[in-house]
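hi!! sorry for the late reply, been swamped w classes. u asked for the two structures so here they r. pasted raw, havent cleaned anything up. first the sequence of the first protein and right below it the tokens
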Amino acid sequence: MTTSDSFVISPAETQEDFNAVLQLFEAYALALGIDLSFQDFAAEVASLPGKYALPTGCLLLARDQEGQGRGSGLGKMLAERVIVEARRMGYQKMRLDTLPSMQSARALYKAGGFEEIEPYYRTPIQGTIFMELQL
């Protein structure tokens, strides 16, 4: 478990946790304003924890963040925690994709050691930036 004065980061394990994650995923997708059907997003969230389940996955949830979030350091703490978990699970690298408009996220990833790479899957979203971190 990772804690700060305003939130606790721990694995999502209960149905209540998965429902909270579902709400967060759906809010994120809505905020993006992009059709994510090419990633089969609806099936992904409907099957939670799905591919995020142990032993090959890890679904983390930040709780009790008291309305904080952006600018609170939560993103950095979540990124650091997921990297620790990936290493603990034996992964050799992490990959992600982001968008040019997500400048804060890109800065966070770069500060965490991620480097831009060639696309590793086809996406209809123009300008998608692919990144990787060697673990």
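now the second protein. again sequence first, tokens right under
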Amino acid sequence: MWVFIQLCGRGLGLSSFLNPKRPEFRLILSLMVNILLYLFLRLKTIPPPFCYFCIVAFMLATQLNSMVDEQSLAVNTICQINRFIVNTLKDGRKVVIVMDMEVLRPGDASAAKIGNPVQYVEGGSGAASAVASAEEEHRGPPPPKMPNKGPASQFLSTPGGSQAKVVPIASLNPYQSKWTICARVTQKGQIRTWSNSRGEGKLFSIELVDESGEIRATAFNDQVDKFYPLIEMNKVYYFSKGQLKVANKQYTSVKNDYEITFINDTSVIPCEDAQHLPSVQFDFVSIAELERTSKDAIVDVIGVCKAYEEVTKLTMKTTNREVSKRDLHLVDSSGKMVSVALWGQEADNFDGSRQPVVAIKGARVSDFGGRSLSVLSSSTLVVNPDRPEAFRLRGWFDSQGKHLETSSISNGWSGGSGGSGGGGSGPNWKTLRESKTGNLGQGEKADYYSCIGTVIYLRKEKCLYKACPSPDCNKKLVDEQNGLYRCEKCNLETPNFKHRMILQVNIADFQDQQWVTCFQEAAETILGQNATYLGELKETDEHAFNSIIEKSFFATFEFRVRAKMEMFNVRPSM
């Protein structure tokens, strides 16, 4: 059966008021069902009056919101629905979510509403009798069946003999208690452990994808032992009975406002017949765009590995454990190059000898030495992916890219045809005395230099603050003294916050000493702990917090310093 619709109206769904950044649109559609409509609409003529019309409410999948933004769905627009899913609400009502549709005739080309549509009432007989009457009067050959592009099985049979309805990832929200999704595992992180004053634990995270979207899931402690050996990369499973909560997007690029936490009742069952499900979903940004991307943002990038460094071994201060690190230098058709840090097994196993195309999902942006990227435990790295973007990059690099002089956005790397060295402004090594006598930071632009310094003192009193929990905001919150915090930037009141660090450190070398300000990433490196843990420790165990601070004294680091004279409290400050 061919299904066509004409848009009669449009509005925001209820969830859009709860989450304005991810609006959901409700469409009021005139549903037209008749095989002859295909011919009339394709021939750009008005359908005859014997075609049946009824008014139905649909939800537009969020990935189609661009059609609204681009004014493609004006009133009276005629569309063909190519793919949809049906979701059943708690009260038994059914919601149709449009996953893919094609505009056949824009609204401005359609003079007015076609036909005389009537309101469709679920379970009523009016619609059925109207269709029957129209078809009795104009009987023709049976209509062809539309191909079903949905999952191979819309139901999961449970051990008790009952069936669980499979719902799309896009429909999940914290108000659902019973749900089942069929999804492919596109990323599986390593097991991570923690130990603090409240105890010990372990966790691992996975990323799941189906035709409607993607979501992140995390297992803790007993669920780690239960599910980690079972779940494999790129395999498809039925997942059910997990806890849904608002996602923390600080460490992931998964495009979903919610995430799943495995609980004791969580079920994971392999699915053998789901080859139609997509693999990793990327939302690439060009390397040139990274210069305008905020620090700590999580991004997806793709580039050709023009050069790479040898593996180096670093000792983690917190665990005294040795970890591998390797830097890659990726270039794309924008002519820009960026340095990417790989860690652990990925650093050991990476082979860049053939200059492969590398796609990374969920890399974190750093402003240490210009702009650079770091691959996280939650990131996904794919070498020579089977994607159009990779094929285009391969052709560009082989034909011209490898011969071009590229400009690096990461200080300390040359943009030439290969090898390592000091490109851009270079490392610009200075002693602390040279940094003071060289008038660095006195001009209109900031100066960057590298130095080796030993921590001789740091100010711990105001090194932590409670910041806005929004992913793109680090503004200090105002305590309302009623259990809530206010962000002046976001105009938001919330009981939640995240800990951020600004650490004043006094460093010294063999010639001089200098106060430097270390922000989040650099401060965490010096102290060997993340800000969240330190914030909790400061509130619960001041002695343990002071012990961590004292351990950093007399530790030596390589510093990349930005020097700029700025006004602070009406006085110049470097």
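hope this helps!! also noticed smth abt the second:
The chain has four domains: 3-137, 155-270, 288-408, 432-573.
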